[in-house]
Amino acid sequence: MKSTVTKSTFRTLFYLRKNEVNKSGNCSIMVRVTINKEQVQFSSKLQIKPELWDTTNSKVLGRSADSMKINRLLDAMRVKIDEIYHRHLNDYGYVLPEKIKNIVLGIDTGKKKMLLVHFAEHNEFYKLKVGIQTTHTTYSRYELTKLRVKEFLEIEYKLSDIPVIGLTPIFIEKFFLFLQSEHKCNNNTAMKFIQRFKAVFYYIKNTGADIKADPFANFKFRYEKVVRQILTQEEIDLIYHKEFEIDRLDQVRDVFIFCSYTGLSYIDVANLTSNDIQEAFDNNLWIITKRKKTNVDINVRLLDIPKAILEKYKGKLANDKILPVCSNQKMNAYLKEIGILCGIDKPITCHVARHVFASTITLANGVPIETVSKMLGHTNIKTTQIYAKIVDSKLSADMENLANVYRNRKMTHKQAL
User: Fold this and answer.
1) What pLDDT digit, counting tens, does each position of 239-275 carry?
2) Cβ(258)–Cβ(312) under 8 Å?
3) For the whole prediction, is pTM greater than 0.70?
4) Of 42, 111, 307, 348, which residue is the least packed, with the fewest Cβ within 10 Å?
């Protein structure tokens, strides 16, 4: 991978704060340190009358003792800033304007805890919540985010780590672009990485770390609307009735169809046991369990097709499992193969089955959205409304087809006359 490291640009400027004049008629002489377009301003603790300031040369006019003394102090400060800059550039490979300011003002607190050290602490703490408040999948995504930040530091800055104070808006923007360019993340996937990074940053801040500026404050979280392709009832029937000579495809098809008629996610169908299938008050078989992701109750009645699939594997699997579920990665790979064999030019994954249940199986057949939301285990009905929009677009397409039928009929009638 090609490095994007460029030579640092460094500048120190003295200027007068003319909009703030004290009772003696003096203004503060300010210091501005700029490194790679990032800058910090602070007071030099020196003052002068506005008419004595040479804006062009950033120094005091005249040869008086006071003027010469202030100019010597400014020169000494410039030399000190230069020394700090070059020393840190040599020792660490980078320099932060904030770091220079703190050393000059005598408020530097020494060695700061590094970003990736904080990140690792966050992830270890988050890991304790797995199985209680969150899932291992979500934890693994935080681990992946930490890895991506580590890669970014190495490629963009040639660093193994960076102090938390080194996080700036430019750093976040560059990391977002890095995810898109180096790892080919689409906008929404890259946004999720930034969202998790932001959560870690606030965790660090809440630990009491001395952080004043929020590098995420001006970052615009813009998610692009995704048009979800769903399978029609005809395509679901085609997959269900397709005969496969290979057992693995036959089994993956059965699991996919089961999920399409129950709305279960991959992790929930993988964990399903006979104890989760119960006869309810209406004498029908129901799936009664909890979503692994949110721990929300799931109650879904088994229709004839999923009941037939369960019957097919009854007593044939070990560990009280009732369906032959392989890994998520293999499931998706085999489903792609199934789509090709069935002549379906749409992406087919485990998660698509959940979409199929919400749209084609339930909403399109008149099941109220509140009922669908409860069966899916959604905690917010707005999540379910995404599927309702899919159904609306399908109905619109169906009505357009109907309109075309009548247009053709009208033309045929005219030709007959």
Assistant:
1) 999 999 999 999 999 999 999 999 999 999 999 999 9
2) no
3) no
4) 111
